[in-house]
Design goal:
This protein has 367 residues and is α/β, with parallel strands linked by helices. It is built from 10 helices and 15 strands. Bound molecules: 6-O-phosphono-beta-D-fructofuranose (F6P).
Length: 367
């Protein structure tokens, strides 16, 4: 009987998920002669014992999915509650889900499970590995906030979308002599805001890692107006907040989600500077659609590398980009940590040299 491997996608979707699934499937079949099984909707396909919860992947099922956004396997964006129970107010890891997966893996003769996801998925993957499940992680998220890799796939595509939005906002901002505020995703990491801000020539970039002063933002805008450039582009990460303040959340379906800082900022800019301002929330447009060429290549490299790990019996690791090469790092080095923008990140320094304002203490950069 040929060896078998399984693959699943967890957490929020990101462009490039299908490219990984395709690379895993093609490499496993063509290079190793294995059978490939896709678990649907995170791990729910197996955990909930659904009749259609696991699908056999072949060259036909993965043909033409390389450029397609989303994930053909479906995903769930929450730490799987079935791995936990709350007892006396404390979250306790339970074993039944691990046991269920372990017996499925054993019963099906699965030699390795490829887990494609972000921090939540890597966390669960680590627990599953510790419980004896042979697992390899593949780093995905538009936020680029995973440790253990220079880049996650999905990030480059998200920057492209945000940069395109800035290009479009520039023409309308200039026509109306307005400040256009673009709120981008990224949770507590400002990578999307920073990279798209530089690529799109934003005049002010506000990050969760550098709390800003409204007065410094307005000072930068006023200076720009005085120099005769009577419009401005501001990129604000959804998790950014002013000195002494806190990130803004809203509630959707009983869950707290970051969002709203763009609208708040536009209102403040109008009130303090008197400039007309509008806010745009880019939201899930950053996650949808076709992956960039860069993300297709990165996702493909990750998929092939993950299968090679399974072939060599290297488990409990996440593949990642280090410099120009793909290496793997122990999942224990990845989980429970977040890669955020250092205030002296080289790109922050470059942006400052260009005159971009970050609104921080003592800043008097012209915008
Ligand atoms: O982690 C990816 C991400 O898109 C974040 O940038 C954002 O804060 C969050 O997910 C949104 O989650 P949801 O799709 O569940 O609203």
């Amino acid at each position: 009987m040929p060896a078998r491997i399984a693959v699943f996608t967890g957490g929020g979707d990101a462009p490039g998920l299908n490219a990984v699934i395709r690379a895993v499937t093609r490499t496993a079949i063509l290079n190793y002669g294995w059978e490939v099984y896709g678990i649907r909707d995170g791990l729910e396909g197996v955990l909930l014992d659904r009749p259609d919860g696991v699908v056999r992947l072949n060259l036909h099922t993965v043909s033409e999915i390389l450029p397609r956004g989303g994930t053909i396997l479906g995903t769930v964006n929450r730490a799987d509650p079935r791995l936990y129970t709350v007892q006396g107010g404390r979250t306790v890891v339970t074993d039944w889900a691990k046991e269920r997966l372990r017996s499925w893996v054993k019963g099906q003769g699965i030699k390795g499970v490829v887990a494609i996801g972000g921090d939540g998925t890597m966390n669960i993957g680590y627990q599953l590995f510790e419980a004896g499940i042979p697992l390899v992680g593949v780093p995905k998220t538009i936020d680029n906030d995973l440790m253990g890799t220079d880049l996650t796939f999905g990030f480059d595509s998200a920057i492209d979308v945000a940069t395109d939005a800035l290009d479009r906002l520039r023409t309308t901002a200039r026509s109306h002599k307005r400040v256009m505020v673009l709120e981008v995703m990224g949770r507590n990491a400002g990578w999307i805001a920073l990279h798209a801000g530089v690529a799109g020539g934003a005049h002010v970039i506000l990050l969760p890692e550098i709390s800003f002063r409204l007065e410094a933002v307005c000072h930068a805008l006023r200076q720009r107006w005085q120099r005769g450039s009577q419009y401005a582009l501001v990129v604000v990460a959804e998790g950014a907040y002013p000195v002494g303040g806190a990130p803004i959340y809203h509630e959707i379906g009983g869950k707290k989600r970051l969002g709203g800082v763009g609208e708040w900022l536009a209102q403040c800019i109008y009130e303090v500077c008197g400039y007309e301002a509008r806010a745009v929330v880019l939201g899930h447009l950053q996650r949808g659609g076709s992956p960039s060429a860069f993300d297709r290549i990165l996702a493909t490299q990750y998929g092939v590398a993950a299968v090679r790990c399974v072939a060599s019996g290297t488990f409990g690791v996440m593949v990642g980009l280090h410099g120009k090469g793909i290496q793997h790092v122990p999942l224990s080095d990845v989980v429970g940590r977040q890669k955020i923008v250092a205030p002296d990140d080289p790109l922050v320094d470059i942006a400052r040299d260009l005159g971009v304002a970050f609104g921080d203490e003592g800043e008097d950069n012209p915008a």
